[in-house]
Amino acid sequence: MKSNLTQEIAAAAAALRRGAVIAYPTEAVYGLGCDPSDADAVARLFALKQRPATQGVLLIAADFAQVEKFIGAAPEAAIARARASWPGPQTWVLPRSAQTPPWLAGAHAGIALRVTAHPLAAQLCRAFGAAIVSTSANRHGQPPARTAADVRSAFGDELAYILDGPTGGLERPTPIRDAIGGEIIRA
Q1: Comparing C-alpha atoms, which of 99, 88, 105, 78 is closest to residue 26?
Q2: Do 62 and 115 touch, CB atoms closer than 8 A?
Q3: Among 15, 46, 106, 116, which residue's beta carbon has the most beta carbons within 10 A?
Q4: How many domains, in total, are found in the chain?
C-alpha cells in the first residue's frame, strides 16, 4: 500500500512539473494545484475554477524553506508569528518578494502562504520539490470538493491528476490572517 501511495504522489508531482493542474486533499477540502512559477498553468487553474485572476491564490509548502523566497521585507515578529503556527492549518498573508510571480497575488500586495501539516499535501510538496498553488477544488461560487469523487463530479476529466486521500478533517478551509497586523481575513 505504501509503495502505491509513493507512486501516486510521484505521478502527481510529475504532472505538476509538466505544467498540469491537479487536485489533492488538504486540511479541510480538496485543493487544486499547479506549479506557481508556470503562468500558463496558473491561468488554466483560474479558467477551470471560473474565478477572476485578480483574487490571487495561496501557496502551500512542506517546510518554511519552500515559502521563504516568496516573502518580501517583513518585520521579524510577523515571520515569527507565521512560523510559530507552522506546520499547521493556518494561512498567513505576508509582503511578497520581487521573486513572487505577479499572477499569484492578483490584485493583492501580499502573498498568502501555508506550511501544511496535512501528510499527503506535504509529501506532494516534497516530491515536487517546491511550494505549490493551493485553492479549493470547486467552480467559483460552488461548495468546495471534500472527496476525490466530488472533484471528479465537478471537473470530470479536466484535471491531469487527482491524488486520492482523506482530507485533514477540518470543518472549514484554513483561516487566513495578516501576519503583520494579525487581522483575520478569512475566519
Answers
A1: 88
A2: yes
A3: 116
A4: 1
Instruction: Encode pLDDT of 131-182 as tens digits.
Output: 999 999 999 999 999 999 999 999 999 999 999 999 999 988 889 999 999 8
pTM: 0.95
pLDDT tens digit sequence for 74-102: 999 999 999 999 999 999 999 999 999 99
DSSP the chain: -HHHHHHHHHHHHHHHHTT--EEEE-SSSEEEE--TT-HHHHHHHHHHHT--GGG--EEEESSHHHHHTTB-S--HHHHHHHHHT-SSS-EEEEEBPTTS-HHHHTT-SEEEEEE---HHHHHHHHHHTS-EEEEESS-TTSPPP-SHHHHHHHHTT-SSEE--------SSPPPEEETTT--EEE-
**Grid-cell match 477572476, residue found:** 52
We report the CATH number of the domain holding residue 107 as 3.90.870.10
Locate 185 and state its grid cell.
Answer: 481575513
Count other Cβ atoms within 10 Å, centred on residue 33: 33
Burial class (CB in 10 A: 0-12, 13-18, 19+), 185: middle
Residue 125 exposed, middle or buried by CB count within 10 Å (0-12, 13-18, 19+): buried
